[in-house]
């Protein structure tokens, strides 16, 4: 019985010539693969609703700052806490997301994250003061932190090899889309209504999870062979031959189980130190360069500079989506390192232009040029960030860590990323109060150091296998 079951499992599940004379075996396999990928696309669409929800959470505070402060009588300190506590919740979510996704599955983790986001949005909607507002914001942050890990992992685990790169980039695109839509409709809706809008992607995600399969790799890792086969067959189509891919997955899982379990202290061993330095260093550069300060408080930056905040925010949002889409098409063509360097140079220029605009305003010089310089600087900044520094550090991080430390090292890098996001968003208003031109000169200096870091430390990983990348890193070390 066991041999017979194995033989049936390994036999190609496609029509024979006798059953359908229109196609040969090879043509039918290709045709059925193309026709039957609808479940992969549907599963990806459902998962990236979590990425879109991520964007909704991140983009909420910028267009609502004035209205919330006025309605609830919040001080600048109280609103800074509200804006930044999102990233504190996301840090907790990022730390716990790996164990949760391993324990209850990828779908279970997405359900949990959606539940926190729903509770958070409702708390914000009904809040009458700073405390419930902060609790709601932290809850949405926790959900956001879980989504930041589980969505790309789920997509990577369900996608066929030839679609994995393209489908995984949709995650970053949907985050940006969520931020941009929040920016745009936030100029039209009341802040409580905008909180209700944040419930929509959660509702779509929760409903969609009933229609898609669990990650086959997670099922295989848990020893649930029959469910693994059913899920993989559903993703590849009822007529697809899954035998070869199933064997590859099982072999991978067995290899993974034989490797020693890595701990945090293992990351500081000589053989792993350069990989960890690259991954963590890119996250530090990405966050301390000012992105969350600019993102969370875009409207107030334009308003302070004397530019129409609604027009500026909408332009910012549209540019962010377009440039992120273009950057995703270039990452496998231009290479990781060139995109990071060009992006870093643009960030320095954008910060300098914005800093100069505030300097002119403070000293009442050339006041007519202040709004133009401010909006140009912010748009150059966000366009440059979207072109490289936004997505490429995550791509590089996924490539440089050896498989036996990937979980622990990835968690450390993600934690550093969210801590940097919290630090930047929390200190932004204080820095602007201290010196608005000084704030952007500081960000320009950090981004300049980031260019130096990328030039000296970060390797080019385009066109290399993971083994070649890790071998090159070890050789240079």
TrEMBL record:
UniProt keywords (A-Z) are: Membrane, Sugar transport, Transmembrane, Transmembrane helix, Transport
UniProt KW Transmembrane helix keyword: yes
Q: Which compartments is it annotated to reside in?
A: Membrane
Q: What InterPro entries does this protein's entry cite? A: MFS_dom, MFS_ERD6/Tret1-like, MFS_sugar_transport-like, MFS_trans_sf, MFS_Trehalose_Transporter, Sugar/inositol_transpt, Sugar_transporter_CS
In the bilayer, the protein is annotated as: Multi-pass membrane protein
Question: Which spans are transmembrane here?
Answer: 38-61, 81-101, 108-127, 139-158, 170-188, 194-212, 276-299, 311-331, 338-360, 372-396, 408-428, 440-458
Highest taxon of the lineage: Eukaryota
Domain Major facilitator superfamily (MFS) profile, by residue range, is 39-462
Checking PROSITE patterns in the record gives: MFS, SUGAR_TRANSPORT_1
Question: Can you list the GO cellular component terms from the UniProt entry?
Answer: membrane
Report the GO molecular function annotations. sugar transmembrane transporter activity
From the Swiss-Prot or TrEMBL record, give the protein name: Sugar transporter ERD6-like 7
Originating organism: Coffea arabica (Arabian coffee)
């Amino acid at each position: 019985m066991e041999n017979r079951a194995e033989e049936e499992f390994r036999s190609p599940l496609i029509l024979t010539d006798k059953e359908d004379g229109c196609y040969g075996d090879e043509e039918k396999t290709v045709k059925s693969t193309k026709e039957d990928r609808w479940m992969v696309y549907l599963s990806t669409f459902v998962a990236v609703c979590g990425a879109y929800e991520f964007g909704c959470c991140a983009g909420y505070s910028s267009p609502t700052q004035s209205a919330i402060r006025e309605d609830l009588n919040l001080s600048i300190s109280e609103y800074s806490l509200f804006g930044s506590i999102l990233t504190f919740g996301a840090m907790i979510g990022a730390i716990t997301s790996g164990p949760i996704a391993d324990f209850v599955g990828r779908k279970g983790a997405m359900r949990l994250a959606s539940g926190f986001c729903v509770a958070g949005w409702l708390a914000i909607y009904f809040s009458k003061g700073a405390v419930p507002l902060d609790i709601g914001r932290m809850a949405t942050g926790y959900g956001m932190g879980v989504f930041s890990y589980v969505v790309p992992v789920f997509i990577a685990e369900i996608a066929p090899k030839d679609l994995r790169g393209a489908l995984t980039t949709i995650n970053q695109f949907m985050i940006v889309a969520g931020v941009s839509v929040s920016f745009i409709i936030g100029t039209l809706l009341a802040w409580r209504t905008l909180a209700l809008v944040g419930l929509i992607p959660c509702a779509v995600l929760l409903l969609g999870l009933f229609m898609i399969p669990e990650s086959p790799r997670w099922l295989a890792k848990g020893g649930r062979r029959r469910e693994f086969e059913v899920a993989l067959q559903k993703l590849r189509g009822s007529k697809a031959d899954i035998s070869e891919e199933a064997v590859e997955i099982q072999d991978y899982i067995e290899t993974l189980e034989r490797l020693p379990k890595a701990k945090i202290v293992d990351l500081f061993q000589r053989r792993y130190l350069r990989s960890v330095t690259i991954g963590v260093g890119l996250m530090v550069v990405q966050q301390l360069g000012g992105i969350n300060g600019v993102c969370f408080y875009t409207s107030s930056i334009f308003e302070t500079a004397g530019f129409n905040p609604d027009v500026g925010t909408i332009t910012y949002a549209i540019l962010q989506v377009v440039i992120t889409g273009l950057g995703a098409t270039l990452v496998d063509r231009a290479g990781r390192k060139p995109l990071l360097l060009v992006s870093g140079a643009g960030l320095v220029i954008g910060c300098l232009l914005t800093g100069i605009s505030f300097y002119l305003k403070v000293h009442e010089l050339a006041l007519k040029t202040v709004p133009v310089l401010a909006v140009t600087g912010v748009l150059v900044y966000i366009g440059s960030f979207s072109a490289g520094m936004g997505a490429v550090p995550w791509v590089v991080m996924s490539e440089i860590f050896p498989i036996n430390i990937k979980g622990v090292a990835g968690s450390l890098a993600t934690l550093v990323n969210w801590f940097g996001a919290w630090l930047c968003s929390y200190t932004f208003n204080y820095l602007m109060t201290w010196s608005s031109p000084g704030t952007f000169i500081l960000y320009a200096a950090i981004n300049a150091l980031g260019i130096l870091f990328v030039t000296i430390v970060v390797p080019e990983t385009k066109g290399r296998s993971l083994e070649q990348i890790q071998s090159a890193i070890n050789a240079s070390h």
